[in-house]
């Protein structure tokens, strides 16, 4: 049977810690919903967006309803939330010859390190934590889009460019 849920089925609600200097990362849990919402708002503002009344609560409720299929890792540096990585679990539908539960994909959706915490390894720590988690849970692959500033880091973690991927913005 395919994964029922990330947290319940795979028991990965434990803290994942991967230090690089003073950066730690952990898998977000229900108590982190407003932290994840605040980091999402900071990411949106950094990318040119604006805030909206009630966004934090709206986002927190939506994420809590889908946290089992949308895992989030939070990077911490000292007492600060340095950034986060949010992904989506994509379960394959049945296919002839592929055994049931043959492995899902983990697709990185949002990957953000606050500007004041860049250059200390926070992004790499986040990405490595997500990859380790997916590998331990039996996922088939992790997919991430790399921008001009993140390509070297993504390749350092072990990702390879896939020339077969195409995208159409709508």
From TrEMBL:
Protein name: GNAT family N-acetyltransferase
Species of provenance: Pedococcus bigeumensis
Alphabetic keyword roster: Acyltransferase, Transferase
Annotated GO MF terms: acyltransferase activity, transferring groups other than amino-acyl groups
N-acetyltransferase domain span: 23-170
Family matches, as InterPro entries: Acyl_CoA_acyltransferase, Bact_Acetyltransf, GNAT_dom
């Amino acid at each position: 049977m395919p994964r029922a849920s990330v947290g319940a089925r795979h028991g990965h609600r434990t803290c994942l810690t991967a230090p690089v200097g003073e950066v730690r990362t952990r898998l977000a849990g229900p108590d982190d919903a407003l932290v994840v919402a605040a980091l999402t708002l900071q990411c949106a503002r950094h990318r040119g967006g604006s805030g909206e009344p009630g966004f934090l609560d709206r986002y927190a409720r939506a994420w809590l309803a889908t946290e089992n299929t949308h895992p989030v890792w939070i990077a911490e540096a000292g007492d600060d939330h340095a950034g986060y990585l949010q992904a989506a679990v994509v379960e394959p539908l049945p296919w002839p010859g592929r055994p049931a539960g043959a492995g899902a994909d983990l697709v990185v959706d949002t990957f953000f390190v606050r500007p004041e915490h860049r250059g200390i390894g926070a992004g790499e720590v986040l990405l490595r934590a997500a990859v380790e988690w997916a590998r331990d849970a039996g996922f088939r692959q992790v997919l991430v889009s790399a921008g001009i500033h993140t390509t070297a880091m993504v390749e350092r973690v072990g990702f390879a460019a896939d020339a077969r991927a195409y995208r159409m913005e709508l």
